[in-house]
Amino acid sequence: MNNKLSCKEARILMMGLIDNELSNDNKLVVMEHINSCSACQTQFDSFNKLKEEEIIMNDLPLSEEIFDEYWTHVYNRIERATGWVILSIGTIITLTYAAYMMLKTFFYDESEPMVLKFGVAFLAIGLIIVFVSVLREKLRIRKSDKYRRILR
Questions:
Q1: Backbone angles phi, psi at 137, to 5 degrees
Q2: What is the spatial distance between Cα 107 and Cα 113, in angstroms, rounded to a whole number?
Q3: Rounded-to-integer distance, Cα 34 and Cα 137, Å
Q4: Which of 22, 48, 76, 148 satisfies CB 3.0 to 4.6 Å to 26 for a cystine?
Q5: How far apart are alpha carbons 107 and 96 in whole angstroms?
Q6: Could you read off the pLDDT of 78-109 as tens digits, one per residue?
Q7: Can you give the residue ranges of every domain in the chain?
Q8: DSSP code for 5
Q9: Which pLDDT score is estimated for 51?
Q10: What average pLDDT does this structure show over 139-147?
């Protein structure tokens, strides 16, 4: 490593210095730069404070209540996500079947070209999927929409 570092290079190596991951030669070069650059000295001090806080946080015991609450939230999110997927699939299947039943005579009419039948089928399925997707998104956003009271 050369003896002169840019600030960018020094900042990249600072965490290695703090974590004691640099060779002795590299430590000297980085420290030389930090001691000669006030901006990097400030950054290095900030990194040191962050490292000290990390050490303090790692030593703090976490209660069982915190772990239980965390896992409860994880399970709730998994259950809700699974529920939404199943609900969406069920709605798509049901609405697709309803659309098929409404267009059944159209599909059985042999005078209609097959391309038109495929086009109508894809159009109906696409509309149903978009409808379910938008409805699901609106329901999800509804509880966190900070502007919902303005529209009332």
A1: -65, -45
A2: 10
A3: 51
A4: 22
A5: 14
A6: 888 899 899 999 999 999 898 888 888 888 88
A7: 7-59, 64-142
A8: -
A9: 87
A10: 75
Which residue type does 122 have? Answer: F
Give me the pLDDT at residue 63, please.
75
Judge contact between 5 and 30, C-beta under 8 A: yes
Q: By three-state DSSP, how is residue 72 classified?
A: helix
Q: Which residue has the higher pLDDT, 137 or 60?
A: 137
Give CA–CA dist 100/93, Å, rounded.
10
- Given a contact cutoff of 8 angstroms between Cβ atoms, the answer to whether 10 and 38 are in contact is no
Q: What is the pTM of this model?
A: 0.41
pLDDT of res. 66: 77
Residue 145 backbone dihedrals phi, psi, to 5 degrees: -75, 115
User: How far is it, in rounded angstroms, from Cα 93 to Cα 85?
Assistant: 12
Per-residue 3-state assignment (H helix, E strand, C coil) for the chain: CCCCCCHHHHHHHHHHHHCCCCCHHHHHHHHHHHHHCHHHHHHHHHHHHHHHHHHHHHHCCCCHHHHHHHHHHHHHHHHHHHHHHHHHHHHHHHHHHHHHHHCHHHHHCCCCCHHHHHHHHHHHHHHHHHHHHHHHHHHHHHCCCCCCCCCC
